[in-house]
Design a protein that fits this description.
By secondary structure, the protein is α+β, with helices and mostly antiparallel strands. It folds into 2 domains: 262 residues, FAD/NAD(P)-binding domain, CATH 3.50.50; 161 residues, Cholesterol Oxidase, domain 2, CATH 3.30.410. Helix content is 27%, strand content 19%. The strands form 5 sheets. Strands 1, 2, 8, 9, 10, 11 and 21 form a 7-stranded mixed sheet that branches. A 7-stranded antiparallel sheet has the order 6-13-14-15-12-18-19. Strands 3-4-20 form a 3-stranded mixed sheet, with no helix packed on it. It is globular. Bound molecules: flavin-adenine dinucleotide. The site of flavin-adenine dinucleotide has 39 residues, from helix 1, strand 9, helix 7 and helix 13.
Length: 498
């Protein structure tokens, strides 16, 4: 052990939860000595080169951690700023039905209408959440709107958190101009000015009461150098706040259970993934989807009846190749039409179920143990059918859909969409199901037999260990989650020193 560094509060993770928490902690307690330990490197916007292959380094496992059954890949950021360095910035408030359920079933009474509205008004103002002008719609957004409206499906405009956006469209590879108002641009500069020390490449292995065991890894070439020597270090703090995201916060707690003397069967349980397919149609002429903001419109028309949202999307060639079913020559031929592809993201609402969990293997590595439920499969199939109709109604000649028995589908197939796209063709081993919105695993709730953290974010059975990230969600929030993560992190930050 090389060092013993002592702070009042140490936060594990500099992403949406960790940096928001720290910001609000400091507003009430400006004299505290605070550190953030971040496993990812210190990348700045100058490092983002818009090259897909290089920028996979901003993600865990270069972009996807596969579930144990190999059916779904989960994406999360592993860099200063966490997933906010690579998120798109699509901004949703939590639906009131979800908040009501969290209050009634899990006792999160502090989420009064007044607290939620006031908090999110402030947060949205500070990170510049706004609707984008119609003039920013690129071909993809325009066609989605046309297709949906031809079918009588209402479309709404998305809100985004950007400032002086140059419409480069590379949000998921890091914003080169710093327009995206994630933690890298808003909270991290603010809190470091106020004295918070951030240690990057510092991976937290386990925690005990008031103690954190870490390994400092070598800083990758081209990133900011470390201030600590490589190797094992121990930190101590009066309070330790885990904000390592849904993949890692439960894993750290599971690795620490013996050290903490806790044996809570709920740790890692009830994760939801907001399972997603990104699918493509082929238009008759080139589409300049790389211009303008990648996403400006969506539809929640099927949310209540069929459990899914449709959002517009734009992905780079590598991810698009992964997203398209098929192999070999056929796949090669399809990719030649990349410049003509229209794209829709399907997001399905999944239920929080006990058997879906983050666990660890014998070496302490993360294992995602997640099985898609019958309801989620049904939602996916219905969403694939409806999205296919939108592609054709927008004028696409062909549609490329996982879960169909024909690739590609052509305009003549429109009459038989229900037969061609069905659950019997949804082979999850051959379809690129993904998740960028993992939630839960360290549930907040009033009943310690059903949850892991109390209403202050403190882990039941501990004195000094708290959580403030997306793993607190008792159930899926059903919309893109970052604003809700900020809301809960704000609450924990405001109340932890009381
Ligand atoms: C590609 C992509 C696009 C997205 N787009 C949107 C969007 O448009 N709108 C939206 O609402 N949401 C979006 N999300 C989801 C959103 O980013 C997350 O919900 C949110 O960031 C979760 O916050 P968090 O604090 O839980 O985790 P994160 O923001 O991921 O932060 C976790 C941090 O902990 C660090 N860490 C992990 N393990 C350790 C360890 N052992 N030791 C130290 N540090 C550790 C990580 O490196 C990371 O910095 C997107 C996510 C991705 C990946």
């Amino acid at each position: 052990m090389k060092n013993n560094l002592t702070f009042d509060v140490i936060i594990v993770g500099s992403g949406v939860g960790g940096a928001t928490f720290t910001d609000y902690l400091l507003r009430k307690n400006p004299t505290l000595k605070i550190a953030i330990l971040e496993s990812g490197p210190h990348n700045t916007k100058e490092n983002f080169n818009q090259r897909e292959i290089d920028m996979t380094a901003l993600y865990y496992n270069r972009g996807a951690v596969l579930s144990k059954n190999l059916q779904i890949g989960v994406a999360a950021g592993n860099t200063l700023g966490g997933s906010s360095a690579v998120y798109t910035g699509v901004s949703f408030r939590p639906p009131s039905s979800v908040i009501e359920n969290w209050k009634n079933e899990f006792g999160l009474e502090f989420l009064s209408d007044e607290y939620v509205d006031k908090s999110l008004d402030e947060i949205e103002r500070e990170i510049s959440v706004h609707e984008l002008p119609k003039s920013w719609d690129n071909d993809n957004n325009r066609l989605f709107q046309e297709g949906a409206e031809n079918l009588g499906i209402p479309v709404k405009r998305l809100k985004i958190n950007t400032k002086n956006c140059q419409q480069q469209g590379f949000c998921n590879l890091g914003c080169t101009t710093g327009a995206k108002q994630g933690t890298l641009e808003v909270q991290i500069p603010k809190i470091t000015k106020l004295g918070v020390q951030i240690f990057c490449n510092t991976k937290v292995i386990s925690v005990a009461e008031n103690t954190i065991n870490t390994i400092v890894l070598e800083a990758p070439e081209g990133t900011e150098p470390n201030t600590l020597e490589n190797g094992s270090h121990q930190f101590t703090a009066k309070k330790i706040v885990l904000a390592a995201g849904v993949l890692n916060t439960p894993a750290i707690l599971l690795r620490s259970a013996k050290l903490l003397g806790i044996n809570n069967k709920n740790i890692g349980r009830y994760i939801t993934l907001h399972p997603a397919f990104n699918i493509n149609g082929i238009y008759h002429k080139n589409l300049s989807n790389y211009k303008g903001f990648p996403k400006t419109v969506y539809s929640d028309h099927f949310s209540k009846s069929d459990n899914f949202y449709l959002e517009t999307s734009f992905y780079f060639p590598g991810v698009t190749a992964k997203n398209i079913s098929g192999y070999g020559k056929l796949h090669q031929e399809i990719m030649k039409s990349y410049n003509r592809m229209m794209s829709i993201l399907i997001l399905t609402h999944d239920k929080a179920e006990y058997h879906n969990r983050i666990t660890i293997d014998k070496k302490g590595n993360i294992v995602i143990d997640y099985t898609l439920s019958k309801d989620s499969k049904k939602a996916l199939v219905k969403a694939l059918q409806e999205a296919t109709k939108v592609f054709f109604a927008a004028g696409c000649e062909q549609v490329l859909v996982p879960g169909s028995n024909k690739l590609p589908l052509t305009r003549e197939d429109q009459k038989s969409i229900k037969n061609l796209i069905s659950e019997k063709y949804l082979n999850l081993y051959k379809t690129p199901l993904s998740s960028a919105h993992p939630q839960g695993g360290v549930r907040m709730g009033i009943d310690k037999n059903k949850s892991v953290c109390d209403l202050s974010g403190k882990v039941y059975g501990t004195n000094s260990i708290y959580v403030c990230d997306a793993s607190l969600f008792p159930t899926s929030v059903n919309v893109n989650p970052y604003e809700t993560v900020m809301l809960l992190a704000k609450w924990v930050g405001e109340n932890i020193m009381k």
